[in-house]
Design goal:
Blueprint (H helix, E strand, L loop, with lengths): L6 H26 L5 H23 L5 H25 L1
């Protein structure tokens, strides 16, 4: 088992996870045809919460600065907001 994680490795893991979340939410939006669906919102909330826990762990381990973590979460939330805007245009 690897005991140390480099900053670059952690950033790569977080980037992949954020991309997966955006992909999941985008696909669900396409399948559900609406972002205001309670199931969609539940998935979004759960995924963003999980991602924020990963970010907080990286911060506590000293791999990320608090402002970097906050920016990563804001970027993911902005991606979600963009999905809402895109779907809202189609309705």
């Amino acid at each position: 088992m690897q005991e140390l994680v480099s900053r670059d490795e952690m950033l790569a893991v977080l980037a992949v996870d954020a991309a997966k979340i955006k992909s999941i939410l985008s696909k669900q939006c396409n399948l559900l045809c609406m972002a205001k669906c309670p199931a969609f919102e539940e998935v979004a909330d759960t995924q963003i919460y999980g991602f924020s826990c990963e970010v907080k762990l990286a911060e506590k381990c000293g791999i990320l600065a608090e402002d970097e973590g906050r920016q990563m979460i804001q970027d993911l939330e902005q991606g979600l907001a963009n999905i809402y805007v895109t779907v809202g245009k189609d309705e």
